[in-house]
Design a protein that fits this description.
- This is Transglutaminase-like cysteine proteinase BTLCP.
- Keywords: Signal.
- The chain has 232 residues and is α+β, with helices and mostly antiparallel strands.
- It has a single domain, classed as C8orf32 fold, CATH 3.10.620.30.
- 42% of the residues lie in helices and 20% in strands.
- It has 8 helices and 9 strands.
- It has a 7-stranded antiparallel β-sheet with strand order 6-5-4-3-7-8-9.
- The longest helix has 23 residues.
- 40% of the residues are buried.
Length: 232
């Protein structure tokens, strides 16, 4: 999804994906900080550059806990926008795959969902409240394709800020006329979206099959890390 070439990633596919139901198997509210031993294991499996990206991510999280929320947004957006854009077919061999932040960084690539998911979970573990964050399905009008961005709400009725891998500047949704907002969701809820704002609550986010699968993998990873640390 979210290819940068018009004619692919059709808008209707984005909408249809929202209602592919699946029972919620597990939740992973935040990514767990990686131990030095875990990063060393990733180094052995995926190489020095992968380990360096993971270490830089962990340092970002630790340093970011001391920052204001606007500074956290800027740092996180800038950090992840350095990662390569790669579409799912080329990168994962699948039509639509939502990567965990670790998968995204290890492979140094992903599409718009992967950028948005990594920013979402990183800001959560840096202390930004869930109700201030949403993953937003939009249509990128100039590219004529579906797209995903992260939106940040300073308060429930505020115009959200948009964190986007297409541009580095963080702007209010009403200053992004190139994006048509459709749906938005976070760890709990799913809303219709209008002009960037949450317009109507339509259910819970476990109606999104890729989101449920992502959370299940993250929970499995969390358990594996915990078990590994207990054995040490």
């Amino acid at each position: 999804m979210c290819l940068r070439r018009p004619g692919r990633c059709l808008y209707r596919c984005c909408v249809a994906a929202l209602f592919a139901g699946l029972t919620l198997l597990a939740t992973a509210d935040q990514p767990q900080l990686l131990s030095d031993a875990s990063i060393e294991g990733y180094r052995e499996l995926y190489g020095e550059q992968a380990a360096r990206r993971l270490t830089a991510w962990q340092n970002l999280i630790r340093e970011g806990n001391q920052l204001s929320e606007p500074e956290k947004l800027e740092r996180v957006n800038r950090f992840f926008n350095q990662v390569r854009f790669l579409d799912d077919i080329a990168h994962w061999g699948k039509e639509d795959y939502w990567a965990t932040p670790v998968e995204f960084l290890i492979s140094n690539g992903g599409d718009c969902e992967d950028f948005s998911i990594a920013k979402y979970y990183t800001l959560r573990v840096m202390g930004v409240a869930e109700e201030r964050l949403s993953l937003s399905y939009v249509k990128a009008l100039e590219l004529n394709q579906a797209h995903m961005v992260l939106t940040y709400y300073p308060n429930p009725t505020a115009m959200p800020l948009v964190l986007d891998n297409l541009i580095n500047s963080i702007r209010p949704a009403n200053e992004r006329p190139d994006l048509l907002h459709v749906y938005t969701f976070n760890g709990e809820s799913l809303w219709l979206s209008k002009k960037g704002q949450r317009a109507e609550l339509v259910g819970t986010s476990d109606r999104l099959k890729p989101w449920v699968q992502l959370q299940s993998r993250m929970e499995n990873n969390r358990v594996n890390i915990q078990q590994s640390q207990e054995r040490q």
